[in-house]
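Supplementary Note 3. Input sequence used for the single-chain structure prediction.
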Amino acid sequence: MAEPVETPIGVVTAEHFRPGHVRHQVVVGPKFLYALFNPRDKMHSVSRAFMTFLRDGELPYRRLIVNDHIADEAATRLKKQASMNNAVSFLTTLDESSLYQFEAVPESVVIDAKETFIEWTDLGASFTDFVVAAHMDELDVDHVLTYDRHYDAFDVTTLPYRSQE
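The predicted structure, written as discrete structure tokens, is reproduced below.
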């Protein structure tokens, strides 16, 4: 059993990332990836803890889903707010690792997301958030690794379960 990890949100264990029912796939959001590939980010240790728990077999996930909108936002944020080396490391890992599953977003999903984005004017979520949520619905995936509280407005389960309050 993996040891608990001290992080900015408190002690994190594998239980913080375990779904209520066994799912073997999870969408990895851009802010989670940004923190994973930027050691200076305050949530880096939380993202690393997830990867440690996953590697040690403590979690049921076998597919970490990333789509083109997620990859674009994470790589751009890494380039602009961390370094080009961080962005290259992320993109290289995405290409070379068998753990990450790249799923292109169909045009129909973008159209649905755009309609919802225009209708839900009171939600401060980005267009990427809407596309990711619509894509998750299309893929029948209900868990997303994220530190973005905007996903709470969608019909998805955010991981880790504890917020960074």
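The helical segments are 30-37, 44-55, 68-81, 84-96, 107-119, 127-139. The chain has a mean pLDDT of 92.
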